[in-house]
Amino acid sequence: xxxxxxxxxxVSPHPTRSAVAAVEMAFVVPVFALLMLGMFELSRxxxxxxxxxxxxxxxxxxxxxxxxxxxxxINDVIDVMRDNGFNSSLFNPPxxxxxxxxxxxxxxxxxxxxxxxxxxSTVSVQVVIPTTSVNWVSYYFxxxxxxxxxxxxxxxx
Length: 157
Description:
The chain is an alpha+beta fold. It has two helices and five strands, in the order ααβββββ. Helices cover about 40% and strands about 15% of the residues.
């Protein structure tokens, strides 16, 4: 007796759901895009803050040497910022950004310049840039208009 093939086809109890997948993707993709943009912005902000702190640290190291003054500190900070891609349109004190230098003698009195400050004096440097120099989108949402480095303080020996 010959074998007969069945002529009935297997029918899935669930019809194809390709339209549902397209709708789900339409809802999920914008959320993922916002998360990715947020991660990029946050990463860029952290990276820039580290660059600013590195520039302040370099300026402070220059300032604690006896033969260098505030102009040398400013030049070193500007060099570090330019080496990291912050050209004159993104960082050009005092018009775009700032370099805050404070020199205090051992008795706590402020001094006008780091040049020839006595041993035991402290030099502090902070670098500030506008958020428009740093971020692509998030400066529309941020309440602060400036990104600041940590204040780096060193003592003259």
